[in-house]
Design a protein that fits this description.
single chain, 115 residues, mainly alpha, membrane, transmembrane, mitochondrion inner membrane, mitochondrion, Cyt_c_Oxase_assmbl_COX16
Length: 115
């Protein structure tokens, strides 16, 4: 069985190229040539992506806004004033004593409410 050498074969023309010099320097200073550019890319990327994230949340805030109680109920300037005496007389005019309880037909298989 043949034993393969640990080093790859590289022709003599490879020694003077930029990748060859980078590979040699990378072996001597791995953090400066690999780790530092990676960390710098992560930090600068976060600074460049912050405005994009802000735009996303600003767009969401434009869609969802806090409403006052009147806006929520749909009451505008044309709402009618409520007079307690008027509402009292409206209720007094109704016949509230003569009413009849009506039972609603249940769906098949629905619980009757009696235990």
């Amino acid at each position: 069985m043949a034993v393969f050498p640990a080093k790859r074969f590289r022709p003599n023309s490879y020694n003077g190229t930029v990748p060859a010099r980078y590979r040699a320097l990378l072996a001597k200073h791995p953090f400066a040539l690999f780790g530092l550019p990676f960390i710098a890319t992560m930090v600068l990327g976060s600074f460049f992506l912050t405005p994009a994230t802000a735009i996303r949340y600003e767009k969401h805030d434009r869609k969802v806004k806090q409403l006052t109680k009147e806006e929520e109920l749909g009451i505008g300037k044309d709402r009618r004033r409520i007079d307690l005496k008027e509402e009292y007389y409206k209720l007094a005019a109704k016949d509230l004593d003569s009413w009849e309880q009506k039972r609603i037909k249940r769906l098949p298989g629905e619980h009757d409410g009696i235990l």
